[in-house]
Amino acid sequence: MKEFDSRELQLSDLKTVLALMKDGTVTRAAQSLGVSQSALSYQLERMRSRFSDPLFVRVGNRMAPTPFAQRLAGPAARVMYIVETEIAGLAAFDPATTSREFRIGLNELGAIVLLPKLVRRLLELAPHARLKPVTVDAAAIPSALDAGEMDIAAGHFPHTHDLLLQQLLYERDYVCVVRRDHPHIGASMTMREFSETPSIETPASPVTLAWLDEELSRRGLQTTVQMSVRHVSAIPFVVAACNCVAIIPREVFDVFAPIAAIRTVKLPIDIPPIQIHQYWHPRVGSDPAVKFFRELVFATARSDVAGQPG
Are residues 280 and 167 in the same domain? Predict the structure, then answer.
């Protein structure tokens, strides 16, 4: 009996499920897998028979997965990750020749500050490798790292699972900013002046917001919130367009100050920094490819201490 006709589950079956989940049509999935459309259709029929489930049904112009196929996709992704990384990693890892895709979990700040520098360094050391940034949901970091959806997560995630390994990258400083030609605020301001000035805040900095509220409360003051902005990258431009004040990471100020008309203002007390770590799962701790990537992230994050990239 030909291998293709075997009723035993094969790696090609898992690849087929993942390709159809991603591409949505047999034609595009076959192209991405490098097989003919008829071969993929035949394999899908064999899988339907084996699992007694249609797996994918046509809805409009796309092949929609059944609930069973959706449940199968998770284990399939984990198996393929192990095959592509851990088993392949048993051989000597060579950054100069690898075509591996490295996956890093980042929030908006990491994408702004760390990602461009990481792309440049990876291109220098591993020119054939690919880099895939993954949007981070802090609560899902342990499971995403365990499943291989990410190789590393980088950021401030103090409540991640104790089983994860971590490494300090740097400390992120914060600064108070206003528009460059603010008519009423000079080089410094008191906490009362800060509290009475309309402010722009972001839920992306909960630790700093909590510290600020506590410091003002101790003085019988509270912030005058004008606006809450979800995207940190928008704050410099919003501040430059009004008379509001905001507290943002110094690295964001360094990136946007040349194109947004903002300046820093000194407060009477120092804003405490927060620690930025990288996290990885112990399961891949000794994997040579992941080890290379961890060292690359660390070197990139530490390369500009003054600007504190991250």
Answer: yes
DSSP 104-156: EEE-HHHHHHHHHHHHHHHHHH-TT-EEEEEE--GGGHHHHHHHTS-SEEEE-
Q: What is the pLDDT of residues 46-96, one digit of tens each?
A: 888 888 899 999 888 888 999 998 998 888 888 887 777 666 655 668 899
CA–CA separation, 250 vs 245, rounded Å?
14
Beta bridge partners of residue 155, listed in sequence order: 277
Q: Which residues partner with 247 through β-bridges?
A: 176
CATH number at residue 10: 1.10.10.10
Q: Output the pTM of the full model.
A: 0.67
Whether residue 149 sits in one domain with residue 59 = no
Model pLDDT, residue 153: 95
DSSP string, 241-294: TSS-EEEEEHHHHHHHTTTS-EEEEB-SSPPPPEEEEEEE-GGGTT-HHHHHHH
Rounded Cα distance between 208 and 84, Å, is 40
Domain of residue 147: give its range: 92-171+275-301
